[in-house]
Amino acid sequence: MQLVLITALGVGGATIVGSLIGFAFKKIPHKFNDAILSFAAGVMLAAAMVGLILPALEHGGCGGAPIVALGVLAGALVINLLDRFIPHLHNLAGIDREKHGGHVEQLNKILLFVTAIAIHNLPEGLAAGVSFGTGNIGDAISVAAGIALQNVPEGMIIIAPMLAAGMSPRRTFVIAMFTGLVEVFGTLIGYLAVSITAAVLPFALAFAGGTMLYVISDEMIPETHSHGYERGATYALLIGFCAMILMDFYIG
């Protein structure tokens, strides 16, 4: 149990480490911001496939493909509904529409992305917890290492946009920290309830993958291709994707 606690804190703490790095480089030019965001998009694209959707198919067995497909579509639909029917996410950030005008719509999109990260962190934590619960410590540590590597750029990229949209540094850090804490709780829940989690894990993993695929396509790629640095952004995405694939191959 002690190893599980340490791993849970390490996985969740990686997001916080990334957010601290984000604070240190909060005023980077668009060119580098697009590159970082694209790199993270590539990492998350690979993680969605290799770390979430493919494991969902493995856990689902022979009849698991329809459940996984349903989970992916459900995850995308939930994020889309959040975007359409919760247009006031800026209220959570303490932003006044009258004072900040156009920044509000920008912040809503950013918080939608942060929400997707928080949603996808929960089943990732569950996956790490289930790995420990099944007794295969080596595989569990590999899963946790991959998740932690992915969480660092996730933490980095959410800081600068929230600050630029008018959110206070303190509230920005609290929101970033929350996305990491979600994963800590998910890891502990997964370890303590292996039998229950194993039944719902295929759908949960696929759901998380769907949220990330939607956000990558609808928000991240358009954003990184809107400032004239799309070629560099494309290569950064490919590098992030390949980095995650290589890490999964050699560590996983």
Description:
This protein has ten helices and no strands. With 252 residues, the protein is mainly alpha-helical. The protein has one domain. Helix 5 runs antiparallel to helix 9. It is globular. About 6% of the residues have low confidence.
The gyration radius over C-alpha positions equals 17 Å
Largest sheet: none
Total beta strands: 0
What amount of the residues lies in strands?
under 5%
* Average residue pLDDT: 75
What letter string, H or E per element, gives the SSE order?
A: HHHHHHHHHH
List segments where confidence is low: pLDDT < 50 over at least 5 consecutive residues.
87-102
Span from first to last CA?
22 Å
Shape: globular
- Domain unit count: 1
